[in-house]
Design a protein that fits this description.
Blueprint (H helix, E strand, L loop, with lengths): L1 E5 L6 H13 L3 E7 L4 E6 L4 H11 L12 H8 L15 E4 L3 E7 L5 E7 L8 E2 L5 E5 L2 H4 L10 E9 L5 E9 L3
Antiparallel strand pairs: 1-3, 2-3, 4-5, 5-6, 7-8, 8-10, 9-10
Length: about 180
């Protein structure tokens, strides 16, 4: 779960950096983003109970929590048109490759909650990319990293994650995932 928090002691980007370090060192939360001008920051926690530990760690670092006078993270993301769970550095933890009659399914756990992926049909020389409900676009094949951007309607609105995976028949292949970076 993401929470928008605030501290009246935030005055600059150094404060945000200190909050990032304290949050990540807490072991119960991950720092997502911060806005020194608004004196706010967003953290990701598995449960609301972790907020007590975050609050204590931040108070020890000199940044006690205060009231939030701004939109919630979901409202910020909704205004941007991006999914609320998307972070600027998100990429799949791993790809799962499974043999099929036509080739292989290449799946990943998406930030939107989907089990998203690509169904590779080895009989198709130039397969179209596939997409997830949240706007991610994926392509698997030789040279997928170079082949995917021209197939996107607005390539400048995506960041590309390209990796090599091994297919069930032992052949290395590229998987390219275009992740929305702006609305």
């Amino acid at each position: 779960m993401q929470f928008l928090l605030s501290s009246p002691e935030i005055t600059c980007e150094h404060c945000i950096a200190t909050i990032r370090e304290a949050t990540n060192a807490s072991g119960v939360a991950r720092f997502i983003s911060g806005d020194a001008n608004a004196r706010t920051f967003v953290v990701d926690v598995e449960s609301g109970a972790a907020l007590d530990r975050i609050s204590s760690a931040l108070a020890e670092a000199g940044y006690p929590l205060g009231p939030v006078d701004g939109p919630a993270p979901d409202e910020v993301h909704a205004a941007s048109g991006l999914h609320p769970n998307l972070t600027t550095d998100w990429k799949p933890a791993a790809y799962r490759v499974e043999r099929t009659e036509a080739g292989a399914n290449v799946n990943y756990d998406c930030y939107c909650g989907c089990d998203a992926g690509f169904a590779l049909d080895r009989s198709r020389a130039d397969p179209p990319p596939e997409s997830c409900c949240c706007g991610n676009v994926i392509l698997v094949g030789r040279g997928a990293g170079a082949a995917l951007p021209p197939k996107l309607e607005t390539p400048g609105r995506f960041r590309l994650d390209v990796r090599s995976i091994t297919m069930p028949w032992g052949q290395p292949m590229e998987v390219a995932l275009a992740v929305p970076s702006e609305a």
